[in-house]
Amino acid sequence: MKALIVVDLQNDFVPGGSLAVPRGNEIVPVINKIQEKFDLVVATQDWHPKNHMSFASNHPGKNVYDTIVLAGMEQVLWPDHCVQGEKGAMFVRGFDERRVEAIFRKGTDPEIDSYSGFFDNGRRKSTGLGDYLKGRGVSQVYVCGLAAEFCVLYTALDAIELGFETYYLEDATRALSHEGFREAREQLTRRGGRLMVSDQL
Ligand SMILES: [Zn+2]
Predict the structure, then answer these.
(1) What is the DSSP string of 103-143?
(2) Where do the structural domains in the chain lie, given as residue ranges?
(3) pLDDT one-digit tens code per residue, 22-57
(4) Residue 102, class by beta-carbon neighbours within 10 Å (0-12 exposed, 13-18 middle, 19+ buried)?
(5) For the segment 92-144, what is each residue's pLDDT rounded down to a tens digit?
(6) Which residue, among 168, 167, 187, 190, has the nearest Cα to 179 in the 3D structure?
(7) Which of 52, 61, 108, 181 shows the greatest Cβ crowding within 10 Å of its Cβ?
(8) Residue 171 contacts by C-beta under 8 Å, 6 or more apart in sequence?
């Protein structure tokens, strides 16, 4: 059984949003088109309280993209983004969510960030996504969405670790940087994930 995981296809991550991924909007029609190829479609949403510690605005004297240590791990400080219930956190207009059976929200604990759709960055809390997929009999997962070298990559790496056959849909994601995208693809294949483009589905 094959599942598509659509990661963080939210207004703040596309042009016009506060943490825009260049050309992030271009993947919307691709993701709409491929959904019919899957038995199950789920989505994740970055879903932060206003006082989230990944926001530079919550660290007086720090700037966006500075790094700090948070809960024992290196943390990049981001612009405020995907605040619970605000427009930036909503799915991108045009994303066809009719077939999305479940939505997994992450980054809700103010003290810790969560790039992966499965666990927070310290692996202290699970979102329930792994158990949900296993409960539905899923063995293969295909990952797409935003951003390629952060939430999509970490979702894919956790899927591999949980024992799913994992595919990273290269043309259904966009990265913040070319270098980040290259490194993400390398890391993914090194860990046993597979690269694919949507025409191969
Ligand atoms: Zn976030």
Answers:
(1) EEEE--STTS---SSSB-TTS--B-SHHHHHHHTT--EEEE
(2) 2-48+81-200
(3) 999 999 999 999 999 999 999 999 999 999 999 999
(4) middle
(5) 999 999 999 999 999 999 999 999 999 998 888 899 999 999 999 999 999 99
(6) 187
(7) 52
(8) 27, 30, 197, 198, 199
Domain 2-48+81-200, CATH 3.40.50.850 — does that match?
yes
Strand 73-76 relative to strand 67-70: parallel, antiparallel, unpaired?
antiparallel
Whether residue 8 lies in the annotated active site: yes
Q: What is the distance in A from the centroid of ligand 1 to the CA of 200?
A: 31
- CB-count exposure of residue 179 (10 Å: 0-12, 13-18, 19+): exposed
Q: Look up 151 and say whether it is catalytic.
A: yes
